[in-house]
Amino acid sequence: MLLRYPDRMTDTRYKLLAWLFIAVLIPGGCGGRSGKLPDFAAIEDVGLMKREFYDFLHPVVVCENQRILGQRAELAAIRSALAAGDAPGWFQRRDIKALAEEYELEWSDDDIADIIDRLWLRVDVIPKELALVQAAKESGWGRSRFAVEYSNLFGHWCYEAGCGVVPERRAAGAGHEVAAFDDVSESVRRYMNNLNTHERYAELRRLRAAQRRAEKPVTGPTLAPGLLGYSERGEPYVEEVISMMQQNQDLLDDAANS
User: Fold this and answer.
1) Mean pLDDT of 164-180
2) Which has the higher per-residue pLDDT, 186 or 36?
């Protein structure tokens, strides 16, 4: 039997199938270089050490962004159908509910349209240059104790007893721990989910949505001002992140092309 395919893949359903195909290829994580960190501290040449760090982490960041884009494509298909007057079916409602749980939105059967609109602001990529530079900054280029022993690249804290590792210099009365991850890909996923869900980064999501509406690129320097809540240092921290992106642009470009 001869199978016929559309001349142009403009139908949302075919775009969705393409993204779902990607999701099948990367179902749970971003294998390959997503395990424990190499020994970056053993690399004496600073320039080489930075290059090796970016080259190692870049495919993991790209992989997680591809996973998010797959989710966004599915959400786009549901939004388009809803705008055309087609209510989400059982499978679509199940998928929306799963996304709402992952992106920390309260579920309600009566407010699906509102949940979809709110998800649209959250289910989106984090520019790879921003993720790579923050990982380098927060982990000392992959050489900090928590990066090496616990795959914590982004300085994540957690707040339940036993959720991670108690820092040696934790202030009396403080209850936070430093989060511990099984591998690097889990750390990257938590980082992106944190920026996409926490109220501290609502401004980052607003800036990203504005870029989308204007059909402009979503870049690290554009979103960095939304990181004021990432560090107690506020504006100086943001300025340092932007400066690192500028200073390491050649290395970031090389990692993207490696």
Assistant:
1) 70
2) 186
Q: Using one digit for the tens of pLDDT, what is the confidence trace for 104-150?
A: 999 887 889 999 999 999 999 999 999 999 999 999 999 999 999 99
Question: Which of 78, 64, 65, 62 has the alpha carbon at shortest distance from 16?
Answer: 78
Task: Find the range with the poorest average confidence among 60-69, 221-230, 236-245, 247-256.
Answer: 247-256
Domains and CATH numbers, the chain: 12-257 (1.10.530.10)
CA 4 to chain CA centroid, nearest Å: 37
Predicted TM-score of the model (pTM): 0.85
What distances in angstroms separate CA 232 from CA 14, 91, 237, one per listed residue?
A: 45, 43, 8
| 194-210 pLDDT, tens digit each | 999 999 999 999 999 99
Q: What is the rounded distance in angstroms from the CA atom of residue 112 to the CA atom of residue 114?
A: 5
Q: How far is CA 228 from CA 126, 202, 218, 240, in A?
A: 16, 11, 18, 12
